[in-house]
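ok here's DUF559 domain-containing protein:
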Amino acid sequence: MQYQANSRARSNAVVLRRAMTDSERKLWSGLRGEQLGVKFRRQHPLGSCIADFACLEPRLVVELDGSQHQEQAEYDARRDAFFHAQGFAVLRFPANAPLLELEGVLQAIAHQLAALQHQPSPSQPSPSGGRCQIPKE
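and the structure:
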């Protein structure tokens, strides 16, 4: 698996799973147990990055962006580029979206999943070797 998580990301993911926000819990209530027909993982490490929610087949990452994400748009763009390089599509929602309109968020995710299931899977491994190459500033 080219996006194998490193040990630091795995241990951080465990901490994040225990400290999920209300919004993450709400979205997880609609994703868990293959309710959309596929398995999602929460706070899933990919390389040195941790995706809020990841579906490994088809490859989809769902991110919830809190207010701090407005100041870190460049960082998020690099993370998205890493996820894309690993063959994942990325959906981003405002952090409060699941609390305000869970059904709309789940419909958007289901729509993206349907689109991905009709695309051929990438057969080439990532040139980054699965490492999240986000330079520290």
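+1. Strands lie at 40-46, 49-55, 60-65, 89-94.
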